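haha ok so turns out i had the wrong file open the whole time. this is the CORRECT one, sorry everyone. sequence first:
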Amino acid sequence: MELADSCLERCIGIGSPDCDELLIECATEYSRREHKPALAEAAARFALKAKDTGQGHMALADALALQGELEKGVLESQVALGLLADQPDQRRAMFDKALRWCEELGDQPLAESLHAVQRLADRQHAERAESPG
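then structure:
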């Protein structure tokens, strides 16, 4: 894992975020393994500089939550949900995780806003599915 850490740190240090998908994969894997969440956060943020994607915000949300920043994680999740309107499976997984964070925080208003974002994304997905072309 030390070699992976070194490679990722060097990639971020180069300053050219042209490999956003790889950075997101690294951030996601680091979070999944609960290994160096600050490095996962840096990788996700760097990837988002190159391209604003739902997957990037999901990776950032996970990294923030691992660092105890649950509220920030939920807020990033909300951004991800909006960007993932056409990917209901990924959106559902992120929503469920963020809802658990809200419950852990005991923050009902934050949970309600999360539900509102999910409903909006559901509507957008349904409208796109119904429209021809």
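The chain is about 80% helix and 0% strand.
again sry for the mixup
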